[in-house]
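chain below, 152 aa
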Amino acid sequence: MYPRDTTYLLCVSPKDYASCHRFFKQEAKDQRASGYQPFRIQFPTIRALRDGEVVGVMASQMTPQGLVASPLHVAYWIYNHMPVVLRLIDAYETVLEQAGVTEYKALLPNRPSTTKVFCEIKGALPLQVLEARGATLYRVPVGVQPWASLKA
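prediction:
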């Protein structure tokens, strides 16, 4: 499987959202995480599909900080997850841009790849570090093409 074999679709039906929950639950099980806690996924949410199977999701959920893009997750078995991550971000931002949104909040894990994509490439600003969750809340501008600053 290659990134070119992946399609990116906006979730529009309960069946779409249920497929995202199944994906998150399976990923937690595969990593022997301490149980999957269901949460309400909201619009907009983008799924990455390969052969009809969900391999990545950029979801939205309502939090005390308002509507936040979280979680952003690509299947653990995908060795090079960055192409899928970048395309999920692009599809998510396309929906926001069409709605006239100029920036959004994203709750993302504290990892070097997250910092590289969101801070260095997307120009996101950290708003709040949530140590207990191992995550940071970012303010992300819409429309900055993530691959525009990548070197070949």
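The CA atoms of residues 106 and 115 lie 12 Å apart. The first helix runs from residue 14 to 30.
thats it, cya
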